[in-house]
Amino acid sequence: QVQLVESGGGLVQAGGSLRLSCAASVDIRTLNDMAWYRQAPGKQRELVAVITSVYTTNYADSVKGRFTISRDNVRNTVALQMNSLNPDDTAVYYCNAREDGDTFLDENEYWGQGTQVTVSS
Questions:
Q1: Bridge-partner residues for 37, per DSSP?
Q2: What whole-number distance in Å separates Cα of residue 80 and Cα of residue 98?
Q3: Tens digit of pLDDT for each residue in 71-104?
Q4: Is 25 left (phi over 0), alpha (psi -120 to 50) or beta?
């Protein structure tokens, strides 16, 4: 069982920055992909950024060049640095982690409780 706890959300003006952090209860080197998702009210939850166990990253087109995902294997945390924020970035941001299941066909998925990011105009 993996527990994920997000922090760092808050209110920021357009053009500002926030840094989100996700703390995992296990050695994140044992996990596969870790990711940040976000969900605005009335909208589908969407993938924002992914980082693999070998530090490969991928980003949604809407945040590419503005957001940076990173992982710290010493502190067992995954961060999302968000720059040049705009009101369209307003959402609840969720940390996500995946690990191998009991067989190679299985994969376990875990979610944090979410942290609110609000960008004002």
A1: 47, 94
A2: 17
A3: 999 999 999 999 999 999 999 999 999 998 888 8
A4: alpha
